[in-house]
Backbone:
């Protein structure tokens, strides 16, 4: 049982103080910023190109993006986050072969999940018409969703490979492959949308092809590099038992992330019920795109916190895990002050990046102060969600998000938009209030976390689960 001991004092040479921890978190976060932003820019660039096709095309793609996020991408993204707990703690405990085992089982699981999602996307147009969306917008959204199906499968594999490498701090292969895929995507999308005149369908197809390129590059690295020799993704007798462990953390991870993600996408769908739905949908979609693009910066710091926290808990170092959580939060706070200031200063020109419609650009300018405030709130909740993934208390995060958004934020958003007639501004204010509630509750949970208990549970799960998973 010596291997299960949790240090109760200092954490030895692994904890060199706040400055040392800041370097460790930054080493993970900085490449992750480039990686996550590059991956997200694939869809952002497609949306920007679609915006130049006209307001109807942009509205259809915006609605389709919301629906596919709700029913597919958010679910896969959330479930993949389970590997941050499982692989991160296994790496900290030096159970290297389990990292590849967990990842193999996760790939099988998510590919199976993709099948019913694909079938659902085929009926996007009919579903949108059924819930009262504009028929012309619904038709455009249906075309976009069908062409987006080939992107679903590589997206699932990509998210798992990212977590697999992240928990081992193998960051630069992800950075290089993501940038390469983005550089490939830009001319490819231009050719498909404008040269071949595939329109929004070409944009969706380009996203899928770019994701596949990213997956192929990463898979080649994982398969042949000596850096992954101990953690190679191979089939073994432990793969199927690991699937059950993956779903144990994957389902609450998905619920935690989806409840938040769905609240934003629900607001986009609600905007289609407002007067002048094309304008409201387009503007809120632009705001959501900007917020999501920035979100991946604090998310990267959260990934740094998740990796450091899970590694230290797996190694039995609770104080080092606690320090990592708060150091990452401090770094993210500095970044968001700079980002929100820059966005507010550029409020007059931001809207024109998504099209030439003056009415849309002016509306975006009015929304920018609220959007800047939203960036600040989202920064802190991204950090505390990262801590949740590292410690493994995603189930608490799920309850927090349910209360913050669906008891608080969404009802307030609907009241401001439809009762007080604040339209899109009301919807966005409600979302910001929900995010603020979420941040406050997650911060309190983090503050009162028993780090020694979390470290003990992580070690027990890894070393006492021999009846189900073989530990070398």
Residues:
């Amino acid at each position: 049982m010596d291997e299960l001991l949790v240090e109760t004092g200092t954490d030895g040479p692994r904890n060199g103080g706040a400055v040392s921890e800041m370097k460790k978190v930054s080493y993970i976060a900085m490449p992750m910023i480039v990686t996550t932003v590059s991956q997200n820019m694939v869809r952002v660039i497609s949306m920007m190109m679609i915006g130049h096709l006209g307001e109807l095309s942009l509205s259809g793609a915006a609605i389709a993006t919301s629906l596919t996020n709700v029913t597919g991408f958010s679910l896969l993204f959330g479930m993949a986050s389970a590997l941050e707990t499982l692989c991160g703690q296994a790496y900290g405990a030096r159970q290297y072969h389990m990292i590849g085992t967990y990842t193999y089982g996760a790939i099988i699981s998510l590919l199976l999940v993709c099948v019913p999602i694909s079938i659902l996307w085929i009926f996007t147009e009919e579903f949108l018409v059924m819930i009262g969306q504009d028929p012309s917008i619904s038709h455009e959204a249906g075309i976009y969703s069908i062409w987006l199906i080939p992107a679903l499968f590589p997206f699932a594999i990509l998210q798992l490979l990212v977590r697999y490498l992240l928990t081992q701090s193998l960051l630069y292969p992800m950075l290089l492959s993501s940038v390469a895929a983005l550089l490939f995507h830009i001319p490819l999308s231009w050719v498909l949308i404008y040269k071949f005149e595939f329109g929004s369908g070409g944009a969706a197809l380009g996203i899928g092809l770019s994701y596949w390129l990213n997956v192929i590059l990463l898979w080649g690295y994982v398969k042949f590099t000596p850096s992954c020799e101990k953690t190679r993704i191979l089939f073994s007798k432990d793969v199927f038992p690991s699937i059950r462990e993956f779903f144990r953390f994957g389902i609450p991870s998905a619920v935690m992330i989806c409840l938040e993600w769905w609240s934003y996408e629900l607001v986009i769908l609600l905007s289609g019920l407002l007067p002048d739905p094309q304008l409201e949908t387009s503007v809120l979609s632009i705001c959501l795109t900007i917020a999501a693009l920035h979100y991946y910066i604090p998310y990267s710091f959260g990934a740094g916190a998740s990796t450091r926290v899970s590694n230290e808990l797996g190694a039995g170092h609770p104080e080092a895990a606690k320090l990592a959580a708060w150091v990452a939060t401090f770094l993210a706070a500095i970044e968001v002050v700079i980002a929100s200031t820059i966005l507010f200063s550029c409020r007059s020109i931001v809207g024109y990046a998504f099209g030439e419609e003056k009415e849309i650009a002016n509306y975006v300018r009015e929304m920018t102060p609220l959007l800047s405030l939203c960036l600040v709130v989202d920064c802190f909740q991204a950090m505390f969600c990262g801590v949740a993934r590292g410690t493994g208390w995603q189930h608490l995060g799920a309850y927090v998000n349910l209360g913050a958004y669906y008891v608080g934020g969404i009802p307030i958003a609907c009241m401001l938009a439809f009762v007080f007639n604040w339209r899109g501004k009301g919807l966005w204010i409600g979302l910001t209030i929900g995010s603020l509630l979420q941040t406050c509750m997650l911060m309190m949970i983090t503050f009162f976390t028993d780090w020694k208990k979390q470290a003990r549970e992580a070690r027990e799960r890894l070393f006492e689960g021999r009846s189900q998973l073989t530990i070398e």
User: Anything to note?
Assistant: Residues 2-463 form one domain. Residues 223 and 229 are 9 Å apart (CA to CA). The two ends are 15 Å apart (CA to CA).
